[in-house]
Specification:
The chain has 86 residues and is mainly α. The chain has four helices and no strands. The radius of gyration is 21 Å and the shape is elongated.
Amino acid sequence: PACRGKGCERCSGTGSIGGSIDIPDIPVPEPTPFGRRLRAWRLEHGRTFRELGAETGILPSILSEIENGRRVPTEKMRQRIEEVMR
């Protein structure tokens, strides 16, 4: 709300309109050893996801997902990344 919790007729000073709901915990994926190695290499070599994507033909968003453990690369993706990391 516009009052940001400082008090108004809509939120009664709570800064929240309506009731609250419980939001379940969402598990955060752990980077794989390959993802950690990729991140270390990319940062050590000063490469952005966009630059690495141009070199490998893999979308930057997918490279980010691989680094962060949200995606397992296919064998073909892994080979392309490994070639660049050599």
